[in-house]
Amino acid sequence: MDRMLYVAMSGAKQAMEQQASVANNMANVSTPGFRAQINTFRAVPVVGEEAPTRAFVTATTPGADFSHGPLTETGRDLDVAVRGEGWLVVQAPGGGEAYTRVGNLQVGPDGQVTTMGARPVVGDGGALVIPPGSIVTIASDGTIAARGAGDPNVGVSNVGKLKLVNPDTRDLVRGDDGLFRMRDGVRPPEADANVVVAAGMVEGSNVNPVEAMVAMIANGRSFEMQMKSIQTADTNAQSANKLLAYG
Q: Model's pTM, two decimal places?
């Protein structure tokens, strides 16, 4: 029996999943530090007596596009962007470390440095706490200095240093909260002195809106093609039933 119906159904299912991924990327075109989601697929030959041209479609492990986004100057003291390779370390909701490129930081009510998503930023020595009303400067190596309003520059004190890491991107897995974590069985990376940041700047999303729009159109056409194949398979089955009924 020809499995055309099931082959087309698998293709339509994967086209819908790809469309959802591209739509999510489009929704995050303006999200700072966002890494585009990538879903890849491969053909799996149908095992049996079917024609050798038949092949199912299956999804492989989804990943992310780790290319760099554009840097935008903001002039804000607490904005930082990682130049080149590297990640900022934040405290994950369930404990442990998570990694992000979102550098528009803020100071919480308790003086702790957090992301705009209220995730505590991790320093080399633990939490980073800035005294209230301080003027903050962040050096290229991630060192945070603070001085009180009206204090001379000689009174600057070091608050701490951002923990900057550069793990192998093949070991990173994106979580549902948008943060990246090390895959199971891989130890958290140590701080890397070669990672540098630029103060007063934020990194934008690496999603190309034109490419994403073209991909959405292509996925839509692919889904339509698979649905037409399903209709053709149904028509062929009805014709075969008529032949058998009157044969």
A: 0.79
